[in-house]
User: Fold this.
Amino acid sequence: MGQEIADMVMASGGNVIGFVDDDPTMAGSSILEVPVLGDRKWLSGRGFAVAVGIGSPAARQKAWNDLRADGIGEPPPLVHPTAYVGLGCRVGAGSIVAAGATLTADVELGRFVIVNAGATVSHNCRLADFSTVAPGAHLAGDTHVEEGADIGIGASVIQGLTVGSWSIVGAGATVIKDVRPNTTVVGCPAKVIAERQPGWQA
Assistant:
């Protein structure tokens, strides 16, 4: 995901200084000819804008909490130049709208949301902080995706439903009824295959 974000910044005319990674073996290496500068402590006091390039909602939330504790300010949203963001849409701090994604009208993304390549988010949808819509997934109008929910590649959600907080919608699933928080659903139509205790992602 970090590579995709680097590409997005460059495609938008921005400059990528480098990657930071808490894996100490990565320091001094390069990814796509962009240097890995060190761990997140490298950012301290430097005043650079950051983007959190992590696909997993729980890992993304933890990374941001760590960065915030280090005094890093909230990053701006990033929208790929080939994405479509329609009338009345709002994209929160740190959120990512990837190449070829579509937000139609009056769509609201909270903070650190990812709408990945080729995904479609239709009118009046609301996506809460740290939620993820994987490549090629489709949300019909007035869908509400709660905090940390993870909608898998190629999944579809019909109109007017709620996908509960920290739930997982499996790849290719067809969601035709609300998804409870902290559950995993798969299949066509989507059915629950796993349930977790609240706070499992902490």
